Amino acid sequence: MTGKYRKLWLASALVTVCVTTSVGDAQVSTATSMSQSERAEGAKAHPELLKEFGGLYNGPQAAYVTSVGRRIAVQSSLSSQQNDFTISLLNSSVNNAFAIPGGYVYVTRQLMALMNDEAELAGVLGHEIGHVAAQHSKKRQSASQRNSILGTLGQVLVGVVAGDSGFGQLLQKGIGTGTQLLTLKFSRTQEYEADDLGIRYLAKAGYDPKALSSMLASLAAQTELDARTRGSNNAVPEWASTHPDPASRVRRALTNAQATGSKSNYRNAATFVGNLDGLLYDDDPKEGVIRGREFLHPLFKLKFTAPTGFTMQNGTTAVSIAGQSGQAQFSGGSLNGSLDDYVQDVFVQLAGQDRRPSVSIQRNMINGLPAAYGSGRMSNSQGAQLDVTVVAYQFGPSSAYHFLVVTPAGQGLGGLSPMINSMARMSDSEAAGIKPRRVRLVTVRPGDTARSLASRMAYSDYQLDRFLVLNGLGPNAPLKVGGRVKIVSY
Known about the structure:
- This protein is α+β, with helices and mostly antiparallel strands and 490 residues long.
- The protein has three domains: 18-148 and 185-280, no CATH class; 285-432, Mog1/PsbP, alpha/beta/alpha sandwich (Protein Transport Mog1p, Chain A, 3-Layer(aba) Sandwich); 437-489, Membrane-bound Lytic Murein Transglycosylase D, Chain A.
- The protein has 17 helices and 19 strands.
- It has helices spanning 36-52, 61-73, 109-114, 118-133, 136-147, 150-153, 166-174, 176-181, 188-205, 211-229, 246-259, 269-274, 339-351, 417-420, 428-432, 450-454, 463-470, and strands at residues 18-23, 26-31, 86-90, 97-100, 104-108, 280-281, 289-291, 294-297, 302-305, 311-314, 319-323, 326-334, 362-366, 369-379, 385-396, 399-408, 424-425, 437-443, 484-489.
- A seven-stranded antiparallel sheet has the order 10-11-12-16-15-14-13, with helices on one face. A four-stranded antiparallel sheet has the order 7-8-9-17.
- Helix 9 packs parallel to helix 11.
């Protein structure tokens, strides 16, 4: 979470030349070229996407991802020139990958860390290129813009303020998770088509086409583990989230890989794993980190604690907090007047500039911080009444941060009240003690076990589970002496 809201704009442009290709059990129309207007629209969207997803990752892994991505991209029908594609490794702690028209393909460092060989990376990138080749973004864009916010703060937040779109626009600008979901809302059929195209590209490039299936299995295991660590039974995977049955998708991808007739088992695992050493993992301290129920930002020197039963997601521009009894987002920006004016300005953004709601602002001190808060009763597009509360804190002469809290009418802050009162400054020593986690490679020695190696993971919980999922291992899988495995350490 870096501060001010940013708007994410996704490009869509026409690709007019198409061919019909057999993939899986169906026929799919794929584009054979990218138009100049499409390239221009993609180039316009690219810098905004980089801002929203943490920017480019500056480690040595970036060049490697680009080389693999270009190798797989030219297997598609879009172009035969590798330089037609811009492949980006993003500095994001979310398991995600996506592509937009114009030849722009993205994968996050977190998803890369989950992979175990080059073929899995190529399969993920090929899947995303398949979405572009099949023109899926054009078919789903308007629906995604409506639904992107639903996965972030819940359906009750759409169309607040008597049907005005200002609130939805604010959330779309202000929270990274919502904009990430904007890239994910494909139909089940479209996801299957992209899987099949990705498998076809793998085979054409000489990779083991079964790699996409093994990657999907790792993703399913990570998603299930994330649900357990967050105390939830229904966590939505960040990549390819439209599939409620990951096991059937894994089986389907394996069946279609076998149907290609390819005999290749090329994975290039040693080279890939060697490139992972030192890769940043989980939150980047520059954007704040989540440690259990605490959010800690060493640069801003602030901290707060989410109540039990609520989950947090750290985005590039905001932190989302969600639970059964309410949702919130935390962000901040410049203080260009009084703290009262700051709170009032947030409500103006909610209602739209033509409406200036009259909100009574109250002042308080919370853990030594000047605080101001106001609340209002608003309606969503279905007519349901909501309590919307803004609580702002002054951290310096020109900086402030705030929570935007939404609960059912009559609840006020509800179960989120303890979080509001937990906001506090971090000490210099606390801030200095927050270190980044990184992927490290360990050579298996005689006597090493999964449990003994897992004990070196930089977590206080689920160490063995995290180790097994990170390495794509089953609970009883043997370790090969002399082989390399991944751990996460400070």
